[in-house]
């Protein structure tokens, strides 16, 4: 039986654009009360405008500011009287072979994509434990299932999110089975993640005239709205793992069948495109 979001309070990071905004609109349409956060004040304000008079709070914050993250989560629970879910969605990427990626850029990706998720879970869990039915949803990636040249930082962060979420799933199934722990692996989704990636360096031999934004737009087949609907349907069914897009399902199969040689089979299909 599908779970209902009526009267449920859900916290969501990265709500100012892309999948985050689509999740906010779709969850609100299902009756959820929302606590939304993003470092992009203008994007967050636009999400709030699109929500109209549906119940939602907005907070401008960077998920790497742990004190602000805890204040936001605790404040949402206090304002709405409960917290039934958190979706740790905020993320970013840099493009560079590991040897060319400055430490500060690598660490920034890890801080946002992984540590921000860790602290989001840490902040939310005491509140989720009080709920009769709750969700803890962490957004990984297909790059949490496979390595990709120039994406060592993103790969490291998304594999880490996967590992964290799998461990939480096993632990909470024993201690707090009312909390559904879910990891999400999107494939190519038409968001600004690729366009906003900091491009530092390419692999040797990469053509210099490639329009990576156009290539990504051509390859990304899933819209944010479709991705949000898949995530919410998975939450309703209380799934532990959600794959988004035919590409994610294909990558899942290939990496399982060929765990050592998957790149030789995938590189021709994926080319130089970046999620």
List the helices and strands and how they pair.
Elements: E1 9-13, H1 18-29, E2 33-38, H2 41-51, E3 56-60, H3 66-80, E4 85-88, E5 94-95, H4 103-128, E6 134-139, H5 152-175, E7 179-186, E8 198-199, H6 212-219, H7 224-236, E9 241-244, H8 246-257, H9 262-270
Parallel strand pairs: 1-2, 1-4, 2-3, 4-6, 5-8, 6-7, 7-9
Helix pairs in contact: 1-2, 1-7, 3-4, 4-5, 8-9
Would you mind describing this structure in some detail?
- The protein has a 7-stranded parallel sheet, with helices on both faces. A two-stranded parallel ribbon has the order 5-8.
- The chain has one domain (9-270): Rossmann fold, CATH 3.40.50.720.
- It is 47% helix and 15% strand.
- With 275 residues, it is of the alpha/beta class.
- The model has no long low-confidence stretch (mean pLDDT 93).
- Helix 1 runs parallel beside helix 2 (41-51), helix 3 runs parallel beside helix 4 (103-128) and helix 8 packs antiparallel against helix 9 (262-270).
- The protein has helices at residues 18-29, 41-51, 66-80, 103-128, 152-175, 212-219, 224-236, 246-257, 262-270; strands at 9-13, 33-38, 56-60, 85-88, 94-95, 134-139, 179-186, 198-199, 241-244.
